[in-house]
Amino acid sequence: MNIHEYQAKELFRQYGIPVPDGLTAATPEEAESAALRLGGPLVVKAQVQAGGRGQAGGVKLVRTPPEAGNAAAALLGRVLRTRQTGAAGKPVHQVLLEKALDISHEYYLSLSIDSAAEQVALVASGEGGMDIEEVAAGRPERICRVNIDPFIGLRAYQLLELAGAIGIPPSLKRQFTSIGLALYRLFTEKDCAMLEINPLALVENGEGKPALVALDAKAGFDAGALFRQPDIAALRDRAQEPPLEARAFDAGLNYVSLKGNIGCLVIGAGLAMATMDAIKLFGGEPGNFLDCGSNSKTEDSREAFEIILAEPGIEGILVNVFGGITQTDLVAAGVIEALRRHREQLPVVVRLEGTGSAEANRLLLDSGLNVQLAGSLTEGAEMIMKLVASQKGRKSRPGAML
Ligand code: ADP
Ligand code: MG
After folding, report:
1. Which residues line ligand 1 (CB under 6 A)?
2. What residues are paired with 112 via a beta bridge?
3. pTM score, whole prediction
4. Whose CA is nearest to atom 7 of ligand 1?
5. 370 part of a folded domain
6. Is the same domain home to 94 and 138?
7. Which H helix or E strand runs over 198?
8. Core vs surface per residue 211-235: b (16+ CB within 10 A) or e
């Protein structure tokens, strides 16, 4: 789960990471009065949960309160499309007004999870401000990376070394180190999946001395840990999530929309991955990743199936469940309910094995619905691809049905 920049900056403040003074506004009038309170030149920043706002016109420099009001009016209520939002864009319901600082250099600093190494990875670069992917592609030597041993944690010497490697001025190495340590503390205490400061800017503080300030803040959290982070869970903004993913999240499903043509309803993340592989093996493209919880009941399976039906571009659905804890007869009942509600003509192949599968298959056979049963994953993947191909053939040659 992601949060907004202004919320991430509030967490930064709590952990002692320097951020510019700022206020949020949801209307142009609020923006104007916030500008009056903050004073001086400001930036007005669209609050959407995606980067690339600067280049997409989502960060505006203003000098006076009326200008701030106008900038807010131009952003609020709009859908902002950046290179990270996808074509649908994201709605702007709030802006953040912040003191505009005079930047002399932009650094990059982030923490994320390196799942292969089972460690938190700290990434830093002297080339901040732009997409780190671009730097990684063009000048990989400019990216420094340190993996953090979970038993030892992040140590000051690692940050001091990094500071040298990315060109932090010697007088600011201690500040860089304390920012890095605070970021790591925030990461571990709040169950983050990623934290990113881009740019971490070199500016002049009020007394004419150089200082580092986090001008941008991105934070993502492990959805599986939200139950023990109620303060973080409360920050969720459903409007920023793709609608089907938001609906799946509400239903407690682990769901990712993909671009392919075959929907997959699977229980267990590993089996979901294997199912996607099998679909690809037979020439299809998965239209979603879905791992229903192993405690799925009829209504969970029905909701999951309906979400897949609502996914654009789906031409067929493969249900693949190996019931251990899961009662596959409840899954079958959910699939039947969803199909009866929607009267979909899509090809559907179901492979249910394990607990309750005899009853499950009987329910499906007796349902009178056009559902094909498969005995194995391979067979199921092959069947769904054949059915989708023949359905397409029928559609393109209507006369062939006569
Ligand atoms: P995004 O990453 O979505 O484009 P940022 O918050 O990084 O948004 O802002 C884009 C750029 O705008 C930054 O790289 C920085 O150059 C500039 N900027 C952002 N906040 C401020 C600020 N408070 N003062 C001066 N410049 C800023
Ligand atoms: Mg940024």
Report:
1. 20, 43, 45, 51-54, 59, 98-101, 103, 106, 129, 198-199, 215-216
2. 121, 194
3. 0.86
4. 216
5. yes
6. no
7. strand 192-204
8. bbbbbbbbbbbeeeebeebeebeeb
